Amino acid sequence: MKSLMALSVVALVLVMGCATDQSKEIAQLRQEVSDLKVLAGPPPTSLDTLYPPEADAPVYQIKMFEMEAPFTGIAIETGKGNFELAKAYFERFRTQYLEVSKMVPEWEKEYPLEPVEQLGASLETGEQDKIMAAFGAVAGACNDCHFLNMPKVQQKYHWEDCSGIMVSDPVTKENVKYSQFMVNLNVSFVGIGLELEQGQPDNALKHFEALNSRYQTLKETCGACHQTEREYYVDDNVQALINTLGATLRTSSPDTNSVRTLSQQIGMESCMKCHWLHIPATYAKAQWNERKQGGEE
Predict the structure, then answer these.
(1) How far are the Cα atoms of 193, 195, 253, 266 from residue 213, in angstroms, in the given order?
(2) Domain 46-157 adopts which CATH fold?
(3) Architecture of domain 162-293
(4) Domain edges within the chain
(5) Is the pTM value of this prediction over 0.70?
(6) pLDDT digit string (tens) for 90-125?
(7) Between 53 and 41, the higher pLDDT residue
């Protein structure tokens, strides 16, 4: 009987221990999911009122620049040994820091007050090492927030949304979404090499003519976002490569290696470099829009 009771106690302890471990694991998983949503999600919607088009100017960004000036001034004057002016800059910075911390309620926790107060206290000592160490702690808090949020803010408010751009495809004569036009452009480009592999140079040339025609239209679509002439990706250097590709394909027996080399150069100088720059923001916006439509925000 005593043995049975002892086994029961051991079993109960084990069950309680497992339940505790599971509870901790579930809590940890929930926190990780929450952190991932913040990492992958868009900036807070309250920020919309501080950026165009709802605001006349990027108000939040301007306030950040205004706050950065006296903060940097603290380091400059500390380095010069002018501690009184450094203190004056600190008071300006602290006032602006508190003001900006309340502009976006969801981000108020990203503005810890303790390191700021420690910076103020260190300035009273007049010891450069202590001041700069405290200065670095405040800078670290700023950097942590920037690391998480700055790319998303730039993607949402600086980059235009390509999903709303419509393009008149010169080959199909259809008005299509920008994403579909890029698919059509890619078909023309890739089709050149595939037709040559199959021993169909005439069809390869047809794909080239479609590529060149669509490329001219692609240049025009840049104006949907850019207000200045493009000097890269769709410039004269890339057009020269395309022209050389066309001349090679028009020979009686196109050299496959030359076509492959020219295609790779066009891909690297135009397609890939443009994608490296534009795709992160484009895909982020698309993901956020899908989540919004799915009711996740």
Answers:
(1) 17, 18, 23, 15
(2) Four Helix Bundle (Hemerythrin (Met), subunit A) (1.20.120)
(3) Up-down Bundle (1.20)
(4) 46-157, 162-293
(5) yes
(6) 999 999 999 999 999 999 999 999 999 999 999 999
(7) 53
